From TrEMBL, chain A:
Name of the protein described by the UniProt record: Carbonic anhydrase
Alphabetic keyword roster: Lyase, Metal-binding, Zinc
Record field: catalytic activity: hydrogencarbonate + H(+) = CO2 + H2O
Single annotated GO MF: zinc ion binding
Binding site for Zn(2+): C49, D51, H105, C108
Coiled-coil blocks: none
InterPro entries: Carbonic_anhydrase, Carbonic_anhydrase_CS, Carbonic_anhydrase_sf
Family statement: Belongs to the beta-class carbonic anhydrase family.
One matching Pfam family: Pro_CA
Alphabetical list of SUPFAM superfamilies matching this protein: beta-carbonic anhydrase, cab
From TrEMBL, chain B:
Protein name: Carbonic anhydrase
Cofactor comment: Binds 1 zinc ion per subunit.
An example Gene Ontology biological process: carbon utilization
Family according to the record: Belongs to the beta-class carbonic anhydrase family.
Entry binding sites for Zn(2+): C56, D58, H112, C115
EC number: 4.2.1.1
Broad class of enzyme this protein falls into: lyase
A GO CC term attached to the entry: cytoplasm
Function: Reversible hydration of carbon dioxide.
Any GO MF annotation of the entry: zinc ion binding
SUPFAM superfamilies the UniProt entry points to: beta-carbonic anhydrase, cab
InterPro entries recorded: Carbonic_anhydrase, Carbonic_anhydrase_CS, Carbonic_anhydrase_sf
Organism: Decorospora gaudefroyi
Lineage, opening ranks: Eukaryota, Fungi, Dikarya, Ascomycota, Pezizomycotina
Reaction equations catalysed: hydrogencarbonate + H(+) = CO2 + H2O
Amino acid sequence: MGTSYIATDPLDYILAGNRAYQQRTTKRDPNAFALLAQGQAPEILWIGCADSRIPETTVCHCKPGEIFVHRNIANTVHADDLNAASVVEYAVTHLRVNQVVVCGHTKCGGANAALGDADLGQTLNMWLHPVRELRRKHKFELEGLPDDDARAAKIAELNVQQSIEVLKQHPAVKRAANERGLTLHGLIYDIGAGELKILSESGSKKMNGLWTPP
Amino acid sequence: MTGKEEPKEVRKYLQQSHDRIFENNKKWAEEMQKKNPAFFKDLSAGQSPEYLWIGCSDSRIPAEAITGLDPGEMFIHRNIANLVCNVDLNVMAVVNYAVRHLKVKHIVVCGHYGCGGVKAAMTPKDMGLLNPWLRNIRDVYRLHQAELDKITDEAKKYDRLVELNVYEQCRNIIKTAAVQQCWAENEYPVVHGWVFGFADGLLKDLKFDHEGQLKEIQKIYDLTKDA
């Protein structure tokens, strides 16, 4: 990983990658791009971390056109963030996705940073403030864990649950949950294993792995 | 799904489309392990991506897949119509983290022809919650009204607005203190504007002149002093 392009210009490297992708895709299905050009009808909105190690379409072995995506620092959904709210509005109201996934992950730099007191600069301090608040609220639970990796994993989970709570209040999500059974899902991606896990939330209604907001 | 199914059928369908992701993920993880047994162990040691990609949320443009990059190589932000808004803490946190902490060498803003967000912004219609976000694209139109109004072919006008939107977002990136200060010190990151076309599946380089634009921008937005 990440070594093959040292000899070449990094931009040429990805443009060459794009040409290879285009040729491979066209060879498999000559109409692939013509079909994609007609429009998108993804079933899933994925809200994940900007972290380079979790390319959603790749780790889910999906094809272009299947997952609508928002990725930001530490997969955080703030109630007052118009960026994420606009993505949710577009995906739910206009594209009519039926499932919204919030995916956190182990070894998250954002979660780690939120566990410490380092000054990350005003922009990041402000963005991560809600995650640091989680750390304060769950202080005893976090202190009881064996090491920093476990604490980072726990805060990643709490952060996913909090983002889901915020999403449940989004007007488009509320409406779609009532009218056509849109569901919300919390996931954790284990970077060291390459595996997705469903977060089981205690006290929530859980049916066959699906969690329907009340 | 046609929308006429019984509730039980809908549940079953949702369960299936949900489970498919997990089955696929397992398959993918196994394949990667087989190719390189240390793959996931190496990844858990940390990330040092060379690129920051700011692209559209559109499901048809998974950045890593269309550039042939492996996990770990590209830091990603995706939103509606690949916008970089000056007061948006979300994207500013991403740019800040990528530039100051990960020290990315390239920042790519990638738009795409046929963008639903750009199309919506060209439509005289109340889009509710989306209005303020899409207003940024209407602003791009206003900045380039002289050029765009001259284009009579609607499809061509739409394509051009997609390109101009990318240009303006590139400019917004170089207005930030993080990019200006890091550039002054290291001569990176370099900002690039690209457009992805579904017609051929290829990326088009809009040849955004990073250095020239930076100089131009800094006449007004210079944030390198007293850093």
